[in-house]
Design a protein that fits this description.
223 residues, alpha/beta, Rossmann fold, seven-stranded mixed β-sheet, 22% strand, disordered N terminus
Amino acid sequence: MPGLDDNDTMVSRETIDPTCVRQLFGDSQSIYCYVDILTNEAVARGLLGPREIGRVWTRHIINCAVIEAGLPSGSAVADIGSGAGLPGLVLAIARPDLHLTLIEPLLRRATFLHEALEKLALSNVEVVRARAEDLHGRHTYGAITSRAVAPLDRLVSWCWPLVRPGGAMLAIKGASAVTEVAAQAGDLRRRGLTATVEHYGGPIVSPPTTVVRIQSQRDAKEE
C-alpha cells in the first residue's frame, strides 16, 4: 500500500503533516486506504462532493478523528446516519479498542459501507441498514456519534433511546452549535438531559471540531 508521501499527491491532492497522521492513527495503513476509497468510489457514487477531494484530510479525516478523545476506552459506539463512514470508519481506524456500529438507512450508502469495510478489513466494525428509531428497545450503546445528520431536537429523539445509562451522544456540529443548544435547552431539561459544546483537536486542526455532548443531568453533575 502506498505510504504517506505518495498519498499526499496521488490520493488526496492535499498536503498533510505526517506527524499529525501518526499522532491520530499510529502506523495503521488503513487510513490511507480509506482516503483512497473516499476520493474515488465515494465521489463517483455521489457520497462526497468532488470539491472535497482537495481537503479530505483536514475537513473530513482529521476533523472526525480528533473526537476520539471524547470516547471512553472499549466503548460500543453507534454512528448514526453514517453515510460515507464519517465519523464512524475514521474512529474505528483511530481507535481499534472501540466497537463501531454504522447505522445507515439508505441502501446505496449501506452498500458502500459494506464494500468499504470489506476493503479495509476492520474487525471492530459492523454495518446495520436501519433508521435509528428502528432500533429503539432493541439495542443500546455507550456512545452515539453523528455528523451533520439533523437538527438537535430530532437527533435527540432519534438517538437518546439508544444510549446506555452513563453514556452520551456526541454530535459533530458547525458554528451554530451554541445557538442550537440554547434553543433546545428547555426541551433538554424536560427530558432530564444537558448539552455542552466541546471543541476537539485545537492544536491539530483549525478550526477545532465542534461537538455537542448530550448526557443525563445526573451524569453531568457527577463529572
